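Protein modeling request. Please complete all fields; requests missing the sequence field cannot be processed.
Requester role: graduate student
Desired output: 3D structure, token encoding
Chains: 1
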Amino acid sequence: MNEVFDNIFKGRGNFYTPSLDPGNKVYGEELVDEMGSELRLWDPNRSKMAAALKKGLGTVPIKPGSKVLYLGAAQGTTPSHVSDIIEEHGVAYLVEFSERAMRDLLDVCERRNNMVPILGDARKPVDYSWVEKVDVVYQDVAQPDQVRILKRNVDEFLKDGGWIMVSIKARAMDVTKEPKDIYKEVEEQLKDDFDIVENLVLDPFEDDHCFIVAQKV
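Delivered output (217 residues):
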């Protein structure tokens, strides 16, 4: 097992994070004992960030101690791995609009002190304006106005020189256009404010998705 990024390990062609809640699974993932530490398999079919890692992602700005604003936390699958990476002295602020998803997310957060669940609309960051400045804004919100939502939260919460990690679902933005054209349009919308470091297509793990990592300029 080799460490490829801070608290992200690779072995047997898969990626793992060290469990912050040993002995417990979040979404039925495999648990592996490695040199006395418990690692959680990061399923690329259940997490777009894991899919990006499988596709060769070379930049992960989320590190131990990072403060992360996560937009579209859903039931907590990827956020739980983010929680593993940032460790106890980091914090992940998790915004989710669906009350049903929030119930599942709360179950995960109850066992992890570095996860802060927020029932709210990512279009209205004023509703969680108490959140501190963060190192990374992570967005997984499949909406036509996704970029506008992202920029609004970046303006409010992202530190100077901070990073964004964004999952783009092309068909949610415009079903009449080719996904590759959507990806280029998103880059155009971001390039004035961000230095785009990576833009990876996530097929076959996620159809018509790309994953963007960029730094605020």
